[in-house]
Amino acid sequence: MNQVQIIAAAVLLPLLMTLATGCEHKDLCYNHPQHATRYETEVMASYDLIWEIREPDGYDWKTGWPADFGMTYRSLNPAMPEGLCVNAYNVNGQNSSRHLHPEGGVLEMIPGINSLLMYNDDTEYIIFDDMSSSVSVKATTRVRSRAGYKGNSLNPTHNSIAEKTVTPPDHLFGYYTAGYDQPPAVIPKQLSVTLRPLVFSYLVRYEFKHGVEYIGVARGALAGMAESVYLYDGHTGKGKATILYDCKVYDWGVEAIVNSFGVPDFPNPDYSRAGTFYGLNLEVRLKNGRTIQFDFDISDQIATQPHGGVVIVSDLEIDDDIGSADGSGFNVDVDDWGEYEDIVIDM
Question: Closest Cα to residue 169, out of 226, 106, 115?
């Protein structure tokens, strides 16, 4: 063996011995990145994909669904969300936010006790506010204006100042747990969660007995609904808002599917839904260019359906002398009907 070979052997031998014995003791092995102790949880998320929650005094639409509605009960169920946001509020005051696949994933978390707030992060019109605390986070929706709408004329407290008008919220789901302990672990701790609906749907049907053939386009408004919802337990704020929406015209009448947080200040054992005003509006632009407004008091229907359901107003009609009279020759394809205007305001 020459001098160069001796030097090489002297360098390589200790290195080979280290590699051969480096993982013999676990306390040394955990210093390697692939084996290090981490603070992780594997979130496994599912969703309660329903569009209404029936109250004991409400009609059972699930088993009594009319065949002439032209759709099935389950067809109104929301689709699977496209993403999941997990907010961790640690007892030491450190907060973190992570975005995962809708069905979950591995979540790196601050060690110790955390309150976890989860919701789907694929919404377009939802605005989240008061994010500093897990129990203060609430969701609102964008303000939307409509020229000419000044509130429901049947509201007993109606005046020139109408409720705030807003866009229907996107479907929103939430999950909350307090006191979740994130221990150190080589293998992530597993947490199975089910996100519950915070937004519900109303199938609104305006049934005409005469004159529907005169209608070109239609839109509506649902008044007296909750302006906000708190994510940690699903109760709604006391503020009221009117939801503006577009409608579809059929040979039997007009229809819309309207998303809502539900009724305001609910649930509340000291709050009675009876005697609270909820109003429905329909604005139609006739093919001859005329515009007609219809207002309805639907308080009795909403009182038994605080979290989605079916609202029906019937026996509507448009007189022939109004619908067939010459007007501006309105064409349903032109743009003079006017658009809603979305205004993003953090409430």
Answer: 226
